[in-house]
Amino acid sequence: MAQAIDTEIQTYMPYLARNERYNKEKPFGADFPVDRCEGGQCANHIFDNQAVTVHNMRGGEQPVLDRHGFCLVHAQTSLTAAEASNSRTPPMERYLGEIERILYEKFPEYLRIEIMDFQVRKRVPEFPHKIGVKVEFEQPATVPHTDFSVSGAFMRMKDIFPGQEEHYENKSFDLINVWRVLKGPNDDWPLALCDFQSVDLDKDVTPNDCLHETGVGENWLLHANDSHRWYFMDWQEEADLIVFRNADSEGVRARAFHAAIRNPKSVCEPRHSIEVRVVAFR
């Protein structure tokens, strides 16, 4: 397959609309059916679909985690697409150990790293035109967001480490995501990340309730701003790891709003990817 370098992608981003609704009610979304609840809504999101230019990270100034909210790490790992699973199988356990070792090596500021969870995604050909098709794996997430707000970070820590509050309360930590494709090269629905320096935290960001059958979490959603600078990795290979911060315990460090984007020039098979989320203590 010939690989022409794309310096940018022209696409659309479904931002959360700046709608008066959110002056009265908080944005929310549920990840379970609510039809058994009379008058139940899966979400109250109103979207503002904006044209965006997404720039290629390759070849230019390399992003820095503490400045841009994300960075690139080139590292070989052992997990194959056939072995990838959402269960803790032996190949998955081996992979999680490799991710920990890579993070310790590349980011010495972290004194303790613990795996929180992981997610395999495999796009079905019907996505995104036929929502509701039964799928084995989660589909690409297209709304620009971070996985957690500061409050949501502590909610998730309580879920992952029940009864162990003394291990993370009053501690400084980051919630980090390590994202890669399972089969490269990939240009199908690549991950786009927004340069943190281009986000106005006072005007562009709003908390969003994440409703689950077993509880509630919180993340951040993004409103449109022409100042936003978006980036992707052209022809991503299995050894191209994208490392980004979702949140930190103090809410002061760079974080990466992110979303999967449609690439109108894609020639690859449907994207197959894996993300690992860790808590990294300073």
TrEMBL record:
Q: Which InterPro entries match?
A: AsaB-like
A single GO molecular function term of this UniProt record: oxidoreductase activity
Concerning NCBIfam families, the annotation shows:
CmcJ_NvfI_EfuI (NF041278)
- Family of the protein in this entry: Belongs to the asaB hydroxylase/desaturase family.
Protein name according to UniProt = CmcJ-like methyltransferase
